[in-house]
Amino acid sequence: MTTDKSILRRFYIIAAIFVVVFLIMGYKLFDIQVVEGQKYRTLAQETVYRNFSIEPNRGNLYDTNMNLLATSVPKYDIRFDAVTVSESNFQKHASALASELSKLLGNSKSYHLQKLKRAREIKNRYLLIAKQLDYSEYIAVREFPLFNLGPYKGGFIAEQSTVRENPLGKIGERTVGFGNVGLEGAFDEFLKGKKGRRLKQKISKGQWKPISDVNEVEPEDGYDVISTIDVNIQDVAHHALLEQLEHFEADHGSVVVMETKTGEIKAISNLGRIKGSDKYYEKLNYAVYEPHEPGSTFKLMSMAAALEDKVIDTSTVFDTEKGMVQFFDRRVYDSKRGGYGKISAAEAFEVSSNTAFAKMIYENYKDQPERFVNRLYNMGLNEKIGLKIKGEGKPHIPHPQDSNWYGTTLPWMSFGYGVSLTSLQILTFYNAIANDGLKIKPKFIKQVRDKHTLIESYSDPIIEGSICSKETALKLQDLMKRVVDNGTGSNISNSNFSMAGKTGTCQTEYWIESGRYVSSFVGYFPADEPKYSCIVVIHKPNPKIGYYGSTVAAPVFAKIAQKIFIDTPLKDEISKDAIKTNLANAKYDDYFEISQKYKTIMPDLTGYPAMDAVSILENLGLKVNLVGSGKVQRQSIKSGTKITNNQSVNLISS
């Protein structure tokens, strides 16, 4: 039988348990509200409200003449908060809003009205109305009935993003780049700007609604970058390369045009074939990233080394032995059956004799092969250029200490086998020879600007020392001129202007099958006072049509040189004070007028939002007459046409 004493004991135990529980709860409440209060209040706030980053507008990317290469265009997504709108406002304006949406977006008025009503019924706070509207469309939608009441009374939500546009289209697309590649990637630190911040409220299912149209922190737009690219030369290089790739049914190719004295890259075109098609597009930046065996264009490097080491002179004679010379278990052949007999080193370069060059390097360096290789290293041929553009390929020059060095490595190196360089690395060496041996680093940027304020200037050339003596450079210049005048490049000789360079034909992927070649030509023009250096490399042309560098690559070089001097003439500064006669004055005025004529080419703006198209054309210096406010249907100047500053253009939009 339970006694009163035991009942009382149990009561005390239960009471004590309750007291302990209440004490723990009290402590926890105190801890949550006082000790950890701020932490939990912040967490709760973040659950409902959160700051989101706002991407800034990237700066514009221009060519050397301030023609637009890439620009940011604002786009807007429009959404509707069906909950925040009062019943009276919804009933009063929903029908008129549906009518306006029907006119702008298509579909019937009843379709849009039912969509709005359905959102109202299910309490949708983030209904998508339209995506990627341009600025003019956004302004129009903001003034529609109901939406013009604002975010709270009218449920209007606008979210801005930016889209990158390339007015030149596919021309130079890979050079301009995107993300972290091309010029966009190289100069991202200037173009990207600083992010802003905007407060949003969580409404449901992971959806966030902006609290207001005002940003917490405004984004700072990126700087504008003026590149060294010249769209006129880029246009010439692109089409000259494309025509040749199509004619010879090649796999891919590249062209680079560089200003000799400054190292400024004026054009860089890279075209690859679409698999299973005869079409080409800017597939990869071959000129920058793809090392390849240069073949006979490497003979300039071999000749430079031999002349610098004074183991030969240009008059040194070599016996080509009927066009075939054997080294150990392998044979070197000349392209001419029967060879060239006994010829000088200068003639060997002119006719591109493999046997003469193999003898030249092997006989003078076989006992000290590291002397030849070290000379190549001293000329910087084993080092990357160090470009801002990402993805530069690593050059390879074998060394006698390498495990795969053989007795035949040295003679084969002499005419460009077993070594590998990118197109731009080869061009940099040739450009140095044009500069009397002075090596200039290639560059892609001229200025960084904040609208009209200069931030950074890169006008001075980056001089990286000499690769050889001036004496050697002058001898090599003469040899390259003779190649075009009388040698393997004589098919492109032009009486109107002089060129100097070297052809190259190299068998590639010979371990897979024969009949695959890399055809190239590299040099500069004019030969006596070089202004531009240029390299053309075409991979795997159809050998049934042609594969020698002289027939496949050299004509592209010649066409670019001719176009630069005829279609886009160079503009030299001439003092009028020095002109004495009326005839001379007239000639000067005519010349200056021509030099100002071609500023850029007309882009294809069909399908662009009208306001975006106007912005792009005004940046190109055109006067725009716009008819309509939708997307561009027609333009009065055909795409690809040369245009001039202040020229008028009509845009017809829907």
UniProtKB/TrEMBL annotation:
TM spans (from-to): 12-30
Domain PASTA residue range list: 596-654
Keywords from the named record: Carboxypeptidase, Hydrolase, Membrane, Protease, Transmembrane, Transmembrane helix
Compartments (UniProt record): Membrane
Species: Psychroflexus salinarum
Pfam families recorded: PASTA (PF03793), PBP_dimer (PF03717), Transpeptidase (PF00905)
Protein's recorded name: Penicillin-binding protein
PANTHER family in the cross-refs: PEPTIDOGLYCAN D,D-TRANSPEPTIDASE, PEPTIDOGLYCAN D,D-TRANSPEPTIDASE FTSI
SMART domains found in the cross-reference section: PASTA
PROSITE patterns in the cross-refs: PASTA
Presence of the UniProt keyword Transferase in the record: no
